[in-house]
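Quick entry, no commentary yet.
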Amino acid sequence: MASREEITVCEDEVRSRYSHLEKMTDLVAVWEVALSDGVHKIEFEHGTTSGKRVVYVDGKEEIRKEWMFKLVGKETFTVGASKTKATINIDAVGGFAYEYTLEINGKSLKKYMENRSKTTNTWILSLGGTDYRVVLEKDTMDVWCNGQKMETAGEFVEDGTETHFSVGDYSCCIKAVSSGKRKEGIIHTLIVGDREIPEAVE
């Protein structure tokens, strides 16, 4: 026969297993948002009976409201190192069904990402067994690598500009050259050592 101690341990295990399940049953939406300092995961829990609203950014709780009598509305918070404004809209779509949409800086996530692809370049590369995500913000010429804003040095060269920075022991350079076509504008290329890194599509 099992001792009382063993039975208690079993009950505790079951309870903790169920409380975790209970905790996640209200999860209604998950989004991934690519910003200059990294790709952030936003999770949203909405208790449609209690009105509970919980927002997690990268696994960290940002907002928790236990009892809300109004089941529709919005929750606003910030994401990432640059404190980018994000809003989750909760709309009723008939009966007890709800639709959840994420806005970044006042634009739908889709519009924001389309706009972002015009204003940034992203490269994913592996150096010495470590993966790096390098982002160039074209309007400011800021360079981010794995969530850190890099120290850069810019110089004018014959056919455009070069922005130099280091990643670990590697010297990197982003070359900006005019495409010669008005629609394409300036072409940015990342060169590490003597290797050209292809641009990533996020």
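second:
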Amino acid sequence: LVFLKQLQKDLEEVKELLTKATRKRVRDVLMTEKHKLELEIKNQPPPKLKDVADEEKLSLGGYTVKINNYGWDQSDKFVKIYISLNGVQKLPSENVQVNFTERSFDLLVKNLNGKNYTMTFNNLMKPISVEGSSRKVKTDMVLVMCRKKREEKWDCLTQVEKESKEKEKASYDTSDPSEGLMNLLKKMYAEGDDEIKRTINKAWVESREKQSKGDIPMDI
């Protein structure tokens, strides 16, 4: 890419000299050089997409890190998202950008200690006001303020989070209490450590033994 720019500058200078040259021999030499440069420029391979991407990356100041850790709370008017970033308060204001839509926002922090940081939230739980939303930079933290369109409580931050919680609740919230308890025990067993699994197994064996002796009804 740099070499191509040099060739183009050489060609511009040759063209400029041609407008000033009056001797035939000088003009012939310049015309030959002009044709040679034009041919060389024409035969230059196009810049690779990777090179362009690398240049853009360098202009941003390093590689990009996706932010996954955050905290959030809410008031009557705002949903507040807290993102910890060491030293973020030292950056120029334009290096911390947040773009809002009615149901999403994305954060870009450019060139913080040689890295860029991004965070995107799509499908927010409820609509927000783009004009009323903003961001504040504090010591080692970015605070994103999403202005609620309606002053109502949000149970979750995103629609996906809500659906995930409902699915988890449905897995052990059934009309049959014993079935719900069994689903909960299965979940605890699947996610528990060896000690929890041993405890559940022991309780299960003891329960089956009591059933076989007729100490408790079989349907419990």
